[in-house]
Amino acid sequence: MNSLKFSLIVPVYNRPDEIADLLESLARQSDKGFELVLVEDGSTIPCRDITEKYAGKFPIRYFYKENEGRSIARNYGMKSASGDYFVFVDSDCILPPDYFSNLRKKLIESYADCFGGPDSAHESFTDTQKAINFAMTAFLTTGGIRGGKVQMEKFVPRTFNMGFSREVWEKTGGFREMFSEDIDMSTRIRNAGFAPQLFREVIVFHKRRGNLSKFWRQVHIFGMSRITLQLLYPGSMKLVHWLPALFTIGSALLILLGIILSPLWLIPLGFYLLALWISAIISTKSLKIGSMAVAASLVQLLGYGSGYIRA
């Protein structure tokens, strides 16, 4: 395992500024046993010039192809990669300096043909990005399904921080172009006989969306795609996937009853928002970001819930 070579595969589409931050974090890695396979998926604002600035600091393989989607771009990258183990992060991620050293250590301690790791907010992120990070990782909003210490569902690796062996790729054929392609891929990996593991120490800093409007569109699509996954894999729907839809319906009902009958009907919703606010302040260590996180959490729950109901 000490000689294991990693191929970091990153699809990118019109994100040159984000790639610059990712490349800078890769140049700071303490473990140099990796290559970057960057697949430009038909970008109109390519990042080749930025990539060339890091030539010589670590192995980089840059490819430009017509726009076909991020899953096809990842598959293209795997076909061109030379590593024994494929690692995937999004173009809006930053890796801590010990990312690959921690990954190598975990694979030596407990080898897994597929792993996933959590994501967090970097101190350099905007307040909105930090608020959205809370909304996407807090137990009170997602049930901890994105790598938390307490989870309501079996862990599922996501492509913002995920990896698998070459053998997995050969048996599964890679990603399918669809929304929630990482959940689909993780499911097919399990069905192929592999057991994905959560490596909590192998973390990335994930920028996510820059404003709540874009965040709403993203989570709305996530909610819709959960129905697609249920159709593909009957029985995969769990209680935690219903919760945002139940919250959406329940909140609308409580507000309606509060208007028609009595404001007392709003007390349960008020208690939940208070608990969310206190939890966010403690987690972010900021009154401002904690308050913003309540708004981001409502976007996450209502956006996902309405997409789920719509589908």
Question: Can you walk through the features of this model?
Answer:
With 311 residues, this protein is of the alpha/beta class. It contains 12 helices and 10 strands. It has a 7-stranded mixed sheet with strand order 3-2-1-4-8-6-9. Helix 5 crosses helix 12, helix 9 crosses helix 12 and helix 11 crosses helix 12. The longest helix is centred in the last third of the chain and has 24 residues. The chain starts with 5 loop residues before the first strand and ends with a helix. The model has no long low-confidence stretch (mean pLDDT 93).
A few lines on this structure:
By secondary structure, the protein is an alpha/beta fold.
Kindly list the characteristics that best describe this protein.
10 strands, 50% helix, alpha/beta, single chain, 311 residues, 13% strand
Order of SSEs:
EHEHEHEEHEEHHEHHEEHHHH
> How many beta-strand elements?
10
Instruction: Enumerate how many helices there are, as a single number.
Output: 12
pLDDT averaged residue by residue:
93
If you compute it from the alpha carbons, what radius of gyration comes out, rounded to the nearest whole angstrom?
20 Å
Q: Numbering strands along the chain, what is their spatial order in the largest sheet? A: 3-2-1-4-8-6-9
Portion of residues in beta strands equals 5-15%
Largest sheet: 7 strands, mixed
Helix content: 40-55%
